[in-house]
Amino acid sequence: MRIIAKTQALQAGQSLIETIIAIFILTTALTASLGVALYAFSASTSSQNEIVAVSLAREGAEVVRVMRDSNWLAGDAKGEAWDLQACSDIGDRLCYPRVYEKVPSYNNYDLVSGNQLAIFDSSDQSWTLDSTGQLNFDLYLQPDGSYTHTSSSTPPFFARMINISFNSAAPYTNENSNQELIVKSVVAWRGKGCSAFAATADLLALATPCKIVVEEHLTNWKDYK
């Protein structure tokens, strides 16, 4: 009887150890699976933010390119007397020094240096650049799925700033708009692992891993037609 009792106690002890080991293995597997799932979700969210940011940044750069081209077309429509001139920096040959300037009353696309907002007016489907006052770079999600600077009920997650500068280093000059137009469209976003920033912050100078910069170099190529 004692031998049977000892055998049963030994078997019970082994079953308890086996149960503990099984629970440990199961817990370890579940923890690892949960970690992988959380990482995959985080990576997916990060990738989604980057895709949206790239699209918004490319849109900003494209807006400036379209404005430069529109100034050329508007100048042609207004007539050669508007912008065709003898330019001293190229031996008084004819050139077009007003490609970066607005063409009244055709458009209002004045391309000037500095940080700016690219504002879309849905009423007439047009864009404008604003560099006046204290600029709010936050973008708000609209009911139609677009992002604009118009405040909405959705808290701002993304922000976009357009930085324009002019390069007059050789072979460019400071005369007759013979400059290289450098456009930097910067989009930053808020979230886990991102640096906090104010709506009026200089996004180009912002140090954060959550930022996309699309840079485009444009020239007064009307002079070469």
Task: Give a description of the structure.
The protein is α+β, with helices and mostly antiparallel strands and 225 residues long. The chain has one domain. It is 36% helix and 24% strand.
Largest sheet: 7 strands, antiparallel
Which range best describes the helical content: under 10%, 10-25%, 25-40%, 40-55%, 55-70% or over 70%? 25-40%
Span between N and C termini? 109 Å
Element order: H for helix, E for strand: HHEEEEEEEEE
- The helix tally amounts to 2
Number of domains: 1
How many strands in all?
9
Mean pLDDT: 83
What characteristic shape results from the CA principal axes?
elongated
Structural class of the helix and strand makeup?
Answer: alpha+beta
User: What percent strand?
Assistant: 15-25%
Low-confidence stretches: none
Gyration radius (Cα, Å) is 30 Å
Give the helix/strand layout.
Layout: H1 2-78, H2 80-83, E1 85-87, E2 93-95, E3 114-121, E4 126-130, E5 138-141, E6 147-148, E7 158-167, E8 180-189, E9 211-219
Jot down its keywords.
alpha+beta; 225 residues; 36% helix; two-stranded antiparallel sheet
In short:
The chain has 225 residues and is α+β, with helices and mostly antiparallel strands.
